[in-house]
Amino acid sequence: MNIVRTHHCPGILLLLLLVVLPGSVRPFGFHAHRIINRMAVFTLPPEMIGLYKQHIEFLSERSIDPDRMAHAVEGEAPRHYIDIDHYGDDPFTLMPRQWDEALELYGEDTLVTYGVLPWHIHVMMQRLTRAFRERNTDRILLLSAHLGHYIADACTPLHTTKDYNGRYPSQRGIHAFWESRLPELYAHDYDYLAGRAEYLPDPLETAWALVEISHLKVDTIYQVFDSLLTSFPADQVYSHELRGQSVNRVYSPVFSEAFHQSLNGMVERQMRLAVRTTGDFWFTAWVNAGQPELEPMEERAISSRLLRRIKNDLRRWEKAGESKSREKPL
Ligand SMILES: [Zn+2]
To answer: What total of structural domains would you count in the chain?
Structure first.
């Protein structure tokens, strides 16, 4: 970060923060996470939709907790990605789907270093199933919101590669470009009709399938970006935007539009996949818990104990996050 002086208005000298690199840590844009959890509610069957609709704001807002936690809590960050290409040219054949088998093959240090996203989705799924069994409204809603976050991360191609933020210096910032800037500019226009949630016979396998679908898109993202970068006049790639008190260098509207167009609906498809799969996981957890009746919970407010805990956590994460600067966008 550089501090620059800018003559903004006559006679007034303003100190503005200039963020040099486009996009810092703004994971699958907060914007996208909120939309995905919100729209996933509408995939649910009548037995579930009442409770989820009642708390749709909570589900949407709490979707971004895991990213706040990732910058503050040790061990959280690797749950948001898996650098699957670390494991060679044919990683999906080599990598065991089960945690125990992967552990035996690669050891915990390696697995944690390169990310544990699909296994963490599975852990969250088991926790949510337990919460349904216990008829614990607080936990059902909080875990549903957080599970939606990790599923959305698995639908984000650059969360599945060691080249998560550019293969070359000229591509740096591409992570936030794909997952934050494009959804912020275009997600309001997407079609989220994802159909009705379906039962997942093997949720861990589904989590891996998401990673594989996403990873297959990494090359396309880089190819499209590179060909645009070489064909675009250099002075039209970036522009500056005022956000709060700072001026951010961002990809210009015209470059963003060209990138979005050339990706040919990829961001929209991946967001819709996240919506549908989040609904599938919520529904499957409920079925596996024996389809408990949710109607009696509908009018129950989220406990003041949980709301207090969330408030304290947010404060703690913010404080810890400020003192830590993490390179990896999550
Ligand atoms: Zn994340």
So the answer is: 1
